[in-house]
Each structure stands twice: as structure tokens, then as C-alpha cells.
Write a structure and sequence with these properties.
18 helices, 34% helix, ten-stranded mixed beta sheet, eleven-stranded mixed beta sheet
């Protein structure tokens, strides 16, 4: 269960809101929006008829009412040291009294509160007779809040000791960053125990109504082609129908488990798959992945569900393609150019199918086309194949080391979606989604190999 923060996007970042009965720390410099976010958390509680307490350690109550405009049912309190007689001065709208520091901790963590905000949690230490008792009191406060299942939000500045962040169940960092000469506020979830959450940074927007967390992107693509790899589909939304996906890899990371999963799902829907790759890759790597998932490549060709544009072989009699259905293999050598090979197969499929998937391995045809010709081929496909007689999901698998930085940057710019996989220095394979019209781009995941289809999942 979760309690809403009062901000839809922040709730989403936290996987549903602040975990019920737990403590969330908002950490950042003064003026970035922590106090307003904290008050909005209490406003949401007041709207739900919950008992809410707001305590500030560094502002008078009048300033709180003026600057934060709290909802009427919220109890407001200001605390400061009583320099005249010792103890802590506890001030509310009903009056003020002086209490021992230990009684303050008990009052803040009383089980009558559903929600609590301590604005300026670092100031609690300064209210104690000495810092040691102050740190112990703060620890005792968090313990009691957990025991009473009070959902709490604390705020603290960056210079506060890390003990507050260590004790809190979750931490949201807020900061300012200069962007083109303009200081912009941002936030991100730095920590949240035992719950999947959004770790990307988001912009904060200030207006007269409060502080809101800005959405990073809009899921504009309504009908993606899903792969059957749940973790990939959740991250990307699926591949883009009637659009292009650049699947960038570094040569050491294997893209085929992902693209073959797309091919398998297409076959299951009776949509033919066109592969532009070396025939050796087809009869070895691709066949290994598709045979257990749907059927061997030879059977798929017999069923007219798999076609190969071969940019390598010089004749259909070469051993590597001799065992394949010649009606489903288009040789670039015989057509005269890779573009003519595409044109031949597009014409072959026209009028026969309603949907198709094409997976082009750029490195397999890089010896045939220059950088400029690669651009021209993309524009030709975009103008003559996309949104034509049938829906086409086009995936371009590109190795940056082969294509070069400029061509890879071009494909990234014109593609509707960009996925990137690489192997790190730790020998783990990673996948990120820098660009996508659906899903949640900006995340990075670890690729975990599996023995059975779909052979990979993301962690």
C-alpha cells in the first residue's frame, strides 16, 4: 500500500507513492521546492480525511501559512529551543508550551497521526541538550514512526549528516543545475527499499499552485509490436509499427535474442519476416533462436513466413544457401544492388500480406554501400515502403564501430526509436532506451541470458 504524495508523476517515480508506514527523505538545497512538495503530501492526506501534522524547525508559523498555504485540517507546529529556561518550545495555532526534548520526540511520533512532515529534520538535533542526544532522539523518532505505521516525509539540506538518509526508507534528491545559463530544478529517487522505482532524473516546475514533477515523455505510439519478452516490452513499449527502430550494439553484445524474439512473435501472428544478414548468421545463430521458439528457418521459408536478402553470396549454388528455399532468398548479386534487392522483395510481398517485420543488419551490407548511400537507402525505404500496402516494423541493427559515429548519429536522429546494447568492462551486457515513443525511455537494464525462449530478460 502507498500514500499519494499529491503529485502524480512523483507517485509514479516512487512506484505508487510513499510506502505506507514508512519515511521518505526529501534532500536538497534551500528554495528548490522540498517544503512545498512535503506540504502537498499532507494536502493529499487531508483530502483523504487523514490526520496530518506539519512541523517546522526553522520557520515561524506565520511564514508557513503564507508561503505554503496548507489545507485547513492540517495541524501546524513550529519548534525551537527555549533559550530562557531550556527545553523545546512547541508552538501551534492553539498556543505554545515548553517541553523536554524527549517529550517532543514522543509527541511527533504519537499514533494519532496518519501523516507527518518534519520540515528541516536536521534541526531536530539542535533542539536537544547536546548533539549526541539529538542524534539518538532522531533515530528514536524514526523507530516510533515505523512502530505506529505513520507515513512521514522529512526534509533536509545537502549538508546534513548522511545518517538521516541511511535511516529513511526512501530518499528523493532535489538540486539545481545550470542549463544554457538558466538554473533549473531537478529531482530523482536516490533510494527506495524493497520496491521497483524510477531512477531517472525529472524536472521540477514551480508555479502559484505549488511544485510539480514534470513528465519526461508522452507515450504517443498506441499500437507497438511487442516481442513477448515482458521486461523489454515494459521498458520500450514494443517495437514501432510503421516506424524504424535503431538497435545499436558494440559488436560484443548480441542483439539477436531481442530481434529474433520480435521475429518469433511476428511468425506467431502470420506476419512474414524479412532478414538482411549474412546467410551464415541465418542458418546458425537465427536458426538456433527460432527453432525452439517457433520453427526452424527452413520450415519458416517453406511456409512463406521468412525471407532473406543475401548481401554476401554470389549465386544460389553456394553451400551456405543451397539448402534454403530459393523463392525466399533474394541475392543482392543477382539484383545488381541492395536497393534493387529490397525493391524486388517489396514487390513480391505487395498485395499478399497485411503486415511484415524487417530486420536489417547493417554490418552485413556495409561493404556494399557508402555512408551517403546508406542515407539514401533509408530515405528510399521511408518514402516507398513505410505506410505502403502493408504495415512494416523496421529494425536496423547497427554496430557503431562498423557504421561510424556520423552514420550512427544520423540513424539515431531519423529513427522513431533507439535501443542500445553493449558489454561493459565488468563483462555484463546492458541495454538502454535513449529514445522511444512508448514505454519509459532513459532507463538502463542488465541483460540476463536464459536457457529457454525468449532466451533473455532485463533486470
Amino acid at each position: 500500500m502507498s500514500r499519494s504524495t499529491g503529485d502524480e508523476m512523483l507517485d509514479e517515480m516512487l512506484g505508487g507513492g510513499v510506502p505506507e508506514g514508512r519515511t521518505l527523505l526529501l534532500r536538497g538545497p534551500s528554495g528548490v521546492g522540498k517544503s512545498r512538495l512535503a506540504m502537498q503530501f499532507l494536502d493529499a492526506g487531508a483530502d483523504a480525511d487523514e490526520d496530518c501534522l506539519y512541523v517546522t524547525t526553522d520557520e515561524p508559523l506565520g511564514v508557513v501559512r503564507t508561503s505554503l498555504d496548507p489545507a485547513e485540517p492540517i495541524t501546524l507546529a513550529a519548534v525551537h529551543r527555549d533559550t530562557s529556561g531550556g527545553g523545546v518550545r512547541f508552538v501551534t495555532a492553539d498556543g505554545a508550551d515548553t517541553i523536554p526534548f524527549g517529550s517532543l520526540i514522543e509527541r511527533l511520533s504519537a499514533d494519532e497521526w496518519d501523516r507527518l512532515v518534519v520540515d528541516g529534520a536536521g534541526g531536530l538535533v539542535e533542539l536537544a541538550p547536546d548533539r549526541e542526544r539529538g542524534r539518538h532522539g532522531r533515530f528514536h523518532l524514526l523507530e516510533r514512526l515505523d512502530d505506529h505505521e505513520t507515513t512521514a516525509v522529512l526534509t533536509a539540506t545537502d549538508d546534513e549528516p548522511g545518517s538521516v538518509a541511511r535511516l529513511a526508507h526512501g530518499v528523493v534528491d532535489c538540486w539545481r543545475e545550470e542549463i544554457e545559463g538558466d538554473a533549473r530544478p531537478f529531482c530523482r529517487v536516490e533510494k527506495l527499499r524493497s520496491r521497483d522505482h524510477d531512477t531517472r532524473r525529472h524536472a521540477l516546475a514551480h508555479d502559484d499552485d505549488g511544485v510539480t514533477v514534470s513528465a519526461r515523455e508522452w507515450a504517443t505510439h498506441e499500437d507497438p509490436f511487442r516481442t513477448g519478452i515482458p521486461s523489454l516490452d515494459d521498458l520500450t513499449g514494443g517495437f514501432v509499427r510503421n516506424g524504424t527502430t535503431l538497435f545499436e550494439h558494440d559488436g560484443t553484445a548480441d542483439h539477436w535474442p531481442f530481434t529474433a524474439a520480435l521475429a518469433a512473435r511476428a511468425v506467431e501472428q502470420d506476419a512474414p519476416v524479412v532478414l538482411v544478414t549474412a546467410p551464415g548468421t541465418l542458418v546458425n545463430r537465427v536458426d538456433d533462436l527460432l527453432a525452439d521458439a517457433v520453427a526452424p528457418v527452413t520450415e519458416l521459408m517453406d511456409r512463406n513466413l521468412l525471407y532473406l536478402i543475401d548481401p554476401i553470396s554470389r549465386s544460389p549454388g553456394e553451400p551456405v544457401v543451397a539448402g534454403l528455399d530459393t523463392d525466399n532468398v533474394v541475392l543482392q548479386e543477382e539484383e545488381g544492388s541492395i536497393q534493387e534487392a529490397f525493391r524486388t522483395l517489396v514487390a513480391e510481398l505487395g498485395g499478399r500480406v497485411e503486415e511484415a517485420v524487417a530486420i536489417i543488419e547493417h554490418s552485413a551490407m556495409a561493404h556494399l554501400v557508402t555512408e551517403n548511400e546508406s542515407r539514401q537507402l533509408y530515405y528510399w525505404a521511408d518514402g516507398n515502403v513505410m505506410n505502403g500496402e502493408y504495415d512494416l516494423t523496421l529494425v536496423l541493427a547497427g554496430d557503431r564501430a562498423v557504421a561510424g559515429d556520423r552514420l550512427t548519429a544520423f540513424f539515431s536522429g531519423v529513427a522513431d526509436q533507439v535501443m542500445r546494447t553493449w558489454r561493459g568492462s565488468d563483462e555484463l551486457q546492458y541495454l538502454s532506451v535513449p529514445k522511444s515513443p512508448a514505454g519509459t525511455p532513459g532507463h538502463t537494464r542488465v541483460v540476463e541470458p536464459l536457457e529457454d525462449p525468449p532466451y533473455v530478460q532485463l533486470r
